[in-house]
Design brief:
Protein name: BMFP domain-containing protein YqiC
Radius of gyration: 42 Å
Organism: Rhodothalassium salexigens DSM 2132
Distance between the termini: 134 Å
Oligomer: single chain
Largest sheet: none
Strand content: under 5%
Shape: rod-shaped
Length: 125
């Protein structure tokens, strides 16, 4: 029986040695693969996740700010349109006296209304 026990002990030692060698080979393979993957990633100029998250957050803030500014612009344009509409509908005479020069006030809104602001457009005779 001692021979069988010794035989099993030898097999156990052999298996342990084989497992140890396999474990060392696996660790070496993992280290080699990690180094290779790291070198490939470096060649691709990939961005670290932290940097990507920072830029994504900046882009989201810029989008939000852009939307807010667009709303402000729309509100200001509505106010300008309301003021221009109030100035046009006032009590002042629309027709200028003959020979009056344009002050350029119409020139700012000329492209919107299609009015060039020339004497031919404003004079009626």
């Amino acid at each position: 029986m001692q021979n069988q026990s010794k035989l099993f002990d030898d097999f156990a030692k052999l298996a342990q040695g084989a497992l140890g060698a396999a474990s060392s080979a696996r660790e070496e393979f993992e280290a080699t693969m990690r180094a290779w993957v790291d070198s490939q990633v470096d060649k691709m100029n990939l961005v670290p996740r932290e940097d990507f998250d920072v830029v994504a957050e900046m882009a989201q803030r810029a989008r939000t700010e852009n939307d807010a500014l667009a709303e402000r612009i729309a509100a200001l344009e509505a106010k300008v349109d309301a003021l221009e509409g109030g100035a046009k509908g006032g009590t002042a005479s629309k027709a200028k006296p003959t020979g009056a020069k344009s002050t350029g006030a119409k020139g700012a809104g000329a492209s919107k209304a299609g009015d060039t602001g020339t004497a031919k457009d404003t004079d009626e005779g």
